Amino acid sequence: MFDLDRWDEIFETIRKNKLRTFLTGLSVASGIFILVVLLGIGEGMRNGISREFEEDASNLIYVWPGVTSKEYKGLNPGRRIQMKNEDYNQILLLYGDKLDKTAATFQNWGMVLNYGKESGSYDVRGTFPAYQVLESISLTAGRFLDLNDLNNSEKNMVIGHRIKLDLFKDEDPIGKIVQVSGVNFKVVGVYTDKGGEREETRAVIPMTTAQRAFGGSNNVDRLYLTLDPEEDFDKAVAASTQFSAELDEFLKSRHTVAPDDNSAIHINNSLENAKRFYTLMDMIKYFFWGVGICTIIAGVVGVSNIMLIIVKERTREIGVRKALGAQPLSIIGMILHESIFVTAIAGFLGLIFSLTLLEFIGPMIETQYIYNPTVNFTVAINTVVILVIAGAIAGFFPAWRAARIKPIIALRDE
């Protein structure tokens, strides 16, 4: 029930103690502000990490060879491992029922591409049609490689956006001929990559063409594999981890590598990396909540102290009320009402200011690991609940003390 007299009392108390009320409210508003901003930064870090993983297929397993570091079965350490087409084919044969998308690459670094009077040094990568999905490549013109290009060793090429700008300027490159080490390739597509300009300085050609035209024989430099989707993230991580272990064992066996030699075969599992990062993000989020809650507690303690002072100042008034028949619950309600009001108003101001800051400044923040820090509606509702609870806690103990004052003692108070 709305009690006008009680509201008059609250506003009268605030008017008499403007500075005290302002400083008390400032401590609560600061706590809420810090909590919301920290949570926004935590969400921005999660967005930034998610964007990093969007550069490639989310469940990508990436394999590349290294150099042996241990003697094994009479073979000296220091052997450079070279994967072959047969490795790729055997993986498809053994694990084809588990695999979703697959590709291999044969890489040629620093190849000179010529078009008219323009030329530049770029990475030319032979690969398979599925490479587009595995590397999250987006076409801006033309098409990507297809099975016909692969099967017939066609001299077709898809170039990155940076190459298009360097060699063709404003000219449409589709259908034009680019020369690579004396071999003519027709440009059939142009792509962009979320990984940035570095990823767009590559030209992609059919794997079979790259191996024949540039002395690759049947060599393979990289393997890209994704597994069939699972029901949830944890199951996907478990399946991916198990497959990575099986793949590591298989490749080491084929290339006569010691089982505990971690330098010969390198396997990067993006799901395992994602799980580690997301676990770290959750820990940071909990830490931010802890810091914010502690700051709010500091504000609540300030409010509680102020309410104790108010109870002390109004001891005689409380005694008169009780002598006239006021019930303890009404005394508690009076103190709680004021405490919750001051805390809620100050907290809402801190909440609104922090949300406004994130709304206008957040989209401008775009670093490698922080992107668009925001706070969702659920978090805002939880913050409101915290405000109400904080106000009630801040006022409860002073209110309980006020309710226990004996009228005869309160009336003697000076």
TrEMBL record:
It is found in: Cell membrane. Residues 291-407 form the ABC3 transporter permease C-terminal domain. The chain crosses the membrane at residues 21-41, 286-311, 331-357, 377-397. It is a multi-pass membrane protein. The keyword Flavoprotein does not apply. Keywords: Cell membrane, Membrane, Transmembrane, Transmembrane helix. Belongs to the ABC-4 integral membrane protein family. This is ABC transporter permease. It comes from Christiangramia lutea. The lineage of its organism: Bacteria, Pseudomonadati, Bacteroidota, Flavobacteriia, Flavobacteriales.
